[in-house]
Each structure stands twice: as structure tokens, then as C-alpha cells.
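anyone seen this seq b4? input:
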Amino acid sequence: MATSRAHVYVHGRVQGVSFRANTRRNAQLFGVKGWVKNCDDGSVEAVFEGENAAVDNIVSWCKQGQSGAYVQRCDVCWEDYTGEFDAFSIVY
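predicted toks r here
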């Protein structure tokens, strides 16, 4: 099983539209672990770890977002997999 880690910053109208909750729901559906949080500049930051295809799926989802969100830009930084997470959570 090949694994990967993606650190993403999602810019646009992504706060106040349940973007974090939907990210968590989709990450759990894909079997991805990590976290998501709101940033002070209005963006959303997340770290995803899991099987390559699952991480690719959640990153693709972040680039589109859900109804009510408007993703202007999604910056993705691929990092070394660490295996440090037991679940996917929202950081407050």
C-alpha cells in the first residue's frame, strides 16, 4: 500500500459554509486521516494522510468544495507520510 501526505491551503469563500465539516465527512469516507482548520486570513488549512488514491480524492474534492463554497485557489504541498494520525479531526 503506497501512502502519501498532502498539506493544503484552500482560498476563497470557504469559511462559514460548513467547509471544514464537509472536509471531515469526505476524508472519513475516503479513509483519510489528519486535520482541518480555519485560518485567520479566511482560508482553510488541512493535512491529509492515507493511501495515495484516497489522498488524491480528498485533494480533488478540496479543489471543488461543496455547494455554497467558492474555491478560488487550492495550494497543495506534498510531504513525506508520517503515520502520526489516528483519525480525521477539525482543529478549533
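Strands lie at 3-13, 33-38, 44-51, 70-79, 88-90. Residues 52-64 form the longest helix (13 residues). kinda curious what u guys think
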